[in-house]
Every structure is written in structure tokens, then in C-alpha cells.
Amino acid sequence: MDQFDNVGIFLQLVAMFLLLIKILTTCDCTGISGRTQALLALSFTSRFLDAPYEFEEHRPIFVVKSMFVTLSYSTLLLIYYVWRSTYQRDLDTFRWELATGACMTLALLSSTQYWDSLVTIMWYFSVYIEAVAIFPQIQLSQKTKYIGRSLFAYVGLFACYRFFYIVHWIYLYLVMGQLSDPFLMVAGTAQCIFTSAYFVWMIKAFNSQYHSEYPYVVRYDLGSQECDDFKDKDLSVIVK
């Protein structure tokens, strides 16, 4: 790994940590897609099937992989169990089964020469499922007309994470003469485009505080001391 790869991993971990802290401190999952988080958890689980084998020889890598899995499932626990009353389940309706089916089909087609390796097939699957994991979140935001500041930071960090991975691939090719997996590059670039477009859309929503063209609700996150009575607070600023 080079410095660009490391920066990308760090930004992704920071994004996941910030989202988890946001839910813990506000006791609220409003505007957060549980299905996006579930797809990400599925992606990390599929990608890191080899983690137990790296415990002895590559412990730092094992720790990083464990952090991804732990953060993703901790977020799911908060959304679907601890504060499920604030989760907008009726609006979070993206057809995840279609996405997973399509991604598994692509994974099998991409790894025809590795069908004897479950780890390789699931690695390709994880790459594809991560690329489309942002779709449920986009759909939920469009339905609720709601943009949280913590979610804004989360999406921005995810866009930056994929950008640094693209720079990493360019660096490998220009400096080291190595060409990364073409399927990985296509999926990663698509994910960067999807996430960046969503981030730009969110910027326009925030700017709607001063323009009437984008009537979205902008959320001001509460502090931890207000968790117990957050439902009685005036939590939102309705953009007019």
C-alpha cells in the first residue's frame, strides 16, 4: 500500500466512526438509511473473509479489517434495535435483494477463472455491492427532503475516500507500472461518481437555506445531554 491507499482507508474509517458517534450522541437515526448500512456491512463481511488467516502474520491489517466490520455492525445495531423508533423504515424501501442478486451475478462473471476460490468470488461481490450501497441513502434523502449535517460529513468523507483510491490506482500505473484489477477500477470509479454526485446534491440542499429553489429540511444535531428529551425539541430548520 502507498500513502494514497492509506489515506483512503483512514477517511473511510473516520466517516464510519463519525456516523456511529452521531447516532450515539443524538439518540436519533432520522435520515440515515439502514439498508445502506446493511449493504456496507455485507460488503465488509464478504471482503474480509480472509481476516482470521492474517491474525498471526499481518496483525495491523487484521485490526483494520476488524474495525470496519465492528463499526458497520455497531451502526446496524443502533439503527435496527437500540433507536429503531427513530428509523424511517417505511421510507427506506430500496430493493436491496435486486442489488445483491445483480452484484453476485457480476462477481461470478468477473471471477470465472477463480470459481474454486470462495474468497475471490466474495471479494468481487464486496466491490460491486459497495459501489451501489449509497443508492438506498440517496433514495431516502429524496423522499424525506432531509439532510443532516453529520450525514453531509459522512458522504463527503466517503467521496474523498474513493477519490484517493483512484489516485492510488493512477500512482501504481504511472510510477510502479502496475495495472490494478479492471473490474475493481470500474466499480470504484462508479462509486466515486455516485457518491460525489450525491454530495453535490447535498451542498445544493444546504444552500437552500438562502434560496427557495430547494425546499429541504436541514437538521441541527443535538448534543448528548439532550438525548432523553430530543423528541420535544425543535430539531429542524425548514428551508423556505
Automatic annotation (TrEMBL):
Membrane topology type: Multi-pass membrane protein
Keyword terms, alphabetized: Endoplasmic reticulum, ER-Golgi transport, Membrane, Protein transport, Receptor, Transmembrane, Transmembrane helix, Transport
One cellular component (GO) term of this entry: endoplasmic reticulum membrane
Gene Ontology biological-process entries: protein transport; vesicle-mediated transport
Pfam families: ER_lumen_recept (PF00810)
Transmembrane segments: 6-25, 61-83, 95-115, 121-139, 151-171, 183-203
Signal sequence bounds: none
InterPro entries assigned to the protein according to its UniProt record, in alphabetical order: ER_ret_rcpt
Compartments where found: Endoplasmic reticulum membrane
Matches recorded under PANTHER family: ER LUMEN PROTEIN RETAINING RECEPTOR (PTHR10585)
Family: Belongs to the ERD2 family.
Protein name: ER lumen protein-retaining receptor
